[in-house]
Write a structure and sequence with these properties.
By secondary structure, the chain is an alpha/beta fold. It contains eleven helices and seven strands. Helix 1 runs parallel beside helix 4 and helix 2 packs parallel to helix 3 (64-72).
Length: 266
């Protein structure tokens, strides 16, 4: 147990370090492709016409999801947004300057009960749940914070695929294991299925991407660390370029896949 706790602690420290490195590059990618804004918009659309008054944004990063939640709902809710990376939160505060009813907290998403004591109508995990080694603890605490009738909304990175839905990495590189983050999607769904008061629906979202898109995505420090975790960032870039050349050469067209999960509390 102590060994597992030590591994989880080191993983979270690596996540914090990688996202501290990623803040600027993350925003540059988003300005070009609007991926994380799109993911959050779709989560809001899947919850329509539900209009939460209080929202918790877990793993808010540079505030892209927070701003999108603020703008996407008919009446902007009060939003509390938490992230482990101070560099990300600096960007988030800048992005949301002047917006009322938005509060940022630096903290551990696996310890929500330490920071939050009031209930929420909705808890969002936009591209963040798979980065939590002890995700079950985070989900347990989030579920307790949600009011009856409220929702748990999650976007989950499912990977890269060919046109038939087969794993592109497995096809192109049979000996290379690629799973961004520490959480398996099936384990997440088993965790939610055990929540007797929650009814869960899931949705697939896939779209074709170019070699340039793939390179820009995997060049984000936090993303490239998922492929080459033991290689210094500056040395990863030519390796990522070579990987993208080979992957897009072997798998055409190439699709990125995400899962949307909406779980409503009775």
């Amino acid at each position: 147990m102590d060994k597992e706790k030590d591994i989880n602690k080191r993983f979270k420290m690596a996540v914090e370090r990688n996202f501290d490195q990623s803040a600027g590059i993350y925003d540059t990618f988003e300005e070009k492709y609007h991926l994380f804004e799109t993911l959050t918009k779709k989560l809001c659309e899947l919850n329509a016409p539900f209009a939460p008054k209080r929202v918790l944004d877990v793993g808010c990063g540079t505030g892209i999801s927070t701003l999108c939640i603020h703008k996407s709902l008919k009446k902007p809710p009060i939003i509390y947004a938490i992230d482990i990376s101070e560099a990300m939160l600096i960007k988030a505060r800048e992005r949301l300057t002047g917006k009322k009813g938005i509060y940022f907290v630096r903290g551990d998403a696996e310890k929500l009960s330490i920071y939050f004591h009031e209930a929420f109508d909705a808890v969002f995990y936009t591209a963040s749940i798979f980065l939590l080694p002890n995700f079950r603890e985070s989900i347990d605490q989030a579920c307790k914070l949600i009011l009856p009738g409220g929702v748990l909304a999650i976007s989950f990175y499912a990977g890269l695929f060919n046109a038939r839905g087969r794993d592109a990495f497995a096809l192109a590189f049979p000996d290379l294991k690629y799973q961004y983050g520490t959480v398996n999607y099936e384990d997440l769904m088993k965790c939610l299925a055990a929540k007797k008061r929650f009814r869960t629906a899931q949705f697939d979202y896939r779209f074709e991407i170019s070699k340039e898109y793939l390179f820009d995505f995997l060049s984000i420090p936090a993303q490239s660390a998922g492929v080459y975790p033991k290689v210094p960032y500056i040395e990863r870039i030519p390796m990522i370029r070579d990987l993208c050349d080979k992957l897009t050469g072997k798998v055409r067209p190439l699709f990125m896949g995400w899962k949307f999960v909406v779980s409503r509390k009775a």
